[in-house]
Amino acid sequence: MAWKPPPRGAWVDKLVALGHGLGDDGRGIVSLRPDDLIAAAEANTGLSDMGDDWFREPLQRLCDSLDDEAGLHLAGRLRARGELQLILQNRLRLVDLWKRESAIAAEDVRSPIILTGLGRSGTTLLHELLDCDPDNRAPLLWELLHTVPPPPAGGLVDEPRALLMDEEITIMDEMVPAFPSMHEQRGYLPTECIFMFAHQFSTDMFTGLYNVAAYTIWRSGVDQSPIYDWHRRMLQTLQWGAPTGRFVVKAPSHLSALPLVFATYPDARVVITHRDPLRVIGSLSDLMATLHWMHSDRVDHEILVQFMTMGLELQMDAVTAERDSGVLPEDQIADIVYGDLVRDPIAAVEGLYAGWGLEVTAEFRKALEAYVDARHANRGGAAHEYRFEDTGLDLAEHRALLAAYQERFGVDSEV
Length: 415
Fold this sequence. Notes:
By secondary structure, the chain is mainly alpha-helical. It has a single domain (10-409), classed as P-loop containing nucleotide triphosphate hydrolases (Rossmann fold, 3-Layer(aba) Sandwich). The chain is built from 21 helices and five strands. It has helices at 10-22, 34-45, 56-68, 74-100, 123-130, 141-145, 160-169, 171-175, 179-182, 194-197, 204-209, 213-220, 225-241, 258-264, 277-295, 301-325, 338-343, 345-356, 362-377, 395-401, 403-409; strands spanning 113-117, 136-137, 246-250, 269-274, 333-337. A five-stranded parallel beta sheet has the order 2-3-1-4-5. It starts with 9 loop residues before the first helix and ends in a 6-residue tail after the last helix.
């Protein structure tokens, strides 16, 4: 069954038509050359020190892929340009702050809770549940892209920068109105670590948004230690601005970098959520195809499915082998199966805290109950509809390839 793209906003189609009329989809008026992006970021901030140079090769490769592979239409080029320049400007301001405030580098980020797992496996739900604990702090989207000056308190949702970030990020909802049913993003909500990694321009974030295969393949063979260095520095910055008991952060991409996670945070508590990968593939492939359609007229859903299926199956084999090898501190890793999490979210959190020797206080429990009640009450909107059958994959063949993973972690089949 051929993938059918959802409708785009009328203004997007008008911009796409304008780009076609120009004959170059806007290349002549919207540059994605790194030198132009950096020059504009420097002009807007009045700053010029970008810090370490490691980011330059990932940025160059990303921009090359955006120009050569992504097939961006004019609206897609505008959004890519705005996003890349915003990140560069935040990077400039962070480097400047770190030079002025040397105490930031001395901040000790203790025992962060790091959530990971397959995309669409409940990491967002668990992130928001754990953020209900007053002793936890989940970085908000605006804090990671408009970081300077650091917020004086965690969880500020009405700060002007939060409102500005909300306007910036919800452009995506207007580009493809079906997108919010697939993934909610708001400037004032807890968000993923991909936005911290983006400051080094090496992140799964860009793979999700655009067809940048060459960039993605290059990243897979490069040591990613520098992106974790930035991750730690950004958490130090937030903590310096507002004293923090314990960070709770999340990103599916941590799943492929668990040794780096523990090298960066030796006392981390890692939680891995597990779900049937064949259920995940249907959802993720539809999400990624929609994001690519948001930015380009050229989307090959079949190739996305094949790429994602191969990646997830290899990843699950790798995670299973890594966990069984003894190279990771197993006593610092907890596993949660998606079905258990959605069936009784509060019990899942209680189980985690019991394993860590932490107390679920009365205040925390009250906040958890309010969150769960509100979540159930707000489910009246359109649901994200997707089917495994739409992937075109052979169920028996791929189920067999995942048998070891499912048995190791007790993951039920959902298709």
